[in-house]
Structure formats: C-alpha cells, structure tokens
C-alpha cells in the first residue's frame, strides 16, 4: 500500500509540473503512515440519535482525513459516501479488486486546494462491515507549510485554533485533541528532530 500511495504522489507531482520525488522529503525518513483494520459491528439495539444524520444511520461521521492520501479496501461492502459539490451525499460504487482513494487535508493544503480533501462518511448498512484503510502520512517533523505552487499563503495553510503549525505531528495531535472521541487525550511532549 505504501508503494501504491507513493506512486499516486509521484504522478500528482509530475502532473503539477514538479519533480517526481517532490514529496519524498516530507515523508521520509520516518513516515507515520499507518494501516487500520476497521470493523463496524452490527449494533445490538436501535441506532442512537448521535449516530443519525437526518434519517440516515451512520457508523462513521462526516469527516476528511488529515493525511496526504488514504487508500481503502472496502471488501465490497457498500456504505461509503462522499460529499458532492452540489451538497448531496453520493454512494461510492462497490468495485471488486479495487481500492478507493481519498485525498487528505494535508495534500489539499500543500497543493493550495488544487487537490480537494475528500469529505466522506460511512452509512450503517445494518450488518457487520469491514474495511482496511492505509493512511499515507508525512513524517512526524515533516514541514507541512511547504507548497507545490508559489509561496505560502494564508488561505492554504493547515491551522490550529491559535496559529499555523509547521510540523505534521504537532498539527495532527492538535486536530485529535479537538475531536469529541479524543477529548480525554493527554498530550505528550514530543521533541522534533
């Protein structure tokens, strides 16, 4: 999955008129990329109101990943939906032997919005649902203020509530602290190399 993600970034770099290895110094050495094996179990009781969006039961709320690129194997389970520009949710078609690719917030910011972060959610399909997600991420101290085009602009930076954060790891931790499911997250002090 790492090689597949790197190939996507290589092609994105070339397509944007950059050197094919433009992203490598942001990712290596020491990428914090991860593989998540996801299980959305069948709920034993009625769907709680907090897991509803109108009439749609959800097992994963609306969000965009913080990463560069996410590669997802849905194991042919339906339920993944993406937000369209016309304000509607669209079901992602299930295709055998294929991966779904989502653009993350980091790639969106680095590209100045030319690549749009994929806003998505997972609809509860009322059966056990499994998927595997590979999150291609920069290294912990990767400089996320770099831009593919022009100079750093206020409109395309990754921001915390207080200020622009230069490195991916602290920015990611800041994002996690602000998510409801991580409210009790205890911040650890990490030194950047």
Automatic annotation (TrEMBL):
Record PROSITE patterns: FE2OG_OXY (PS51471)
Positions in coiled-coil regions: none
Gene3D superfamilies: B-lactam Antibiotic, Isopenicillin N Synthase, Chain (2.60.120.330)
Domain Fe2OG dioxygenase: 31-138
Xref: PANTHER family: 2-OXOGLUTARATE (2OG) AND FE(II)-DEPENDENT OXYGENASE SUPERFAMILY PROTEIN-RELATED (PTHR47990)
Protein name: Fe2OG dioxygenase domain-containing protein
Lineage: Eukaryota, Metazoa, Spiralia, Lophotrochozoa, Mollusca
């Amino acid at each position: 999955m790492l090689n597949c993600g790197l190939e996507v970034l290589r092609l994105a770099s070339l397509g944007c008129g950059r050197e094919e290895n433009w992203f490598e110094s942001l990712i290596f050495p020491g990428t914090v990329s991860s593989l998540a094996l996801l299980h959305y179990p069948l709920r034993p009781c009625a769907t709680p109101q907090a897991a509803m969006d109108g009439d749609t039961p959800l097992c994963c709320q609306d969000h965009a990943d913080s990463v560069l690129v996410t590669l997802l194997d849905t194991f042919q389970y339906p339920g993944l939906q993406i937000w369209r520009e016309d304000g509607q949710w669209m079901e992602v078609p299930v295709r055998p032997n294929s991966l779904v690719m989502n653009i993350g917030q980091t790639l969106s910011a680095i590209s100045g919005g030319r690549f749009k972060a994929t806003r998505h959610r997972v609809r509860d399909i009322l059966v056990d649902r499994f998927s595997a997600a590979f999150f291609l991420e920069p290294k912990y101290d990767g400089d996320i203020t770099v831009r593919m085009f022009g100079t750093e602009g206020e409109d395309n930076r990754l921001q915390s509530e207080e200020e622009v954060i230069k490195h991916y790891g602290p920015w990611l931790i800041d994002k996690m602290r602000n998510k409801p499911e991580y409210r009790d997250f205890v911040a650890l002090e990490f030194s950047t190399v």
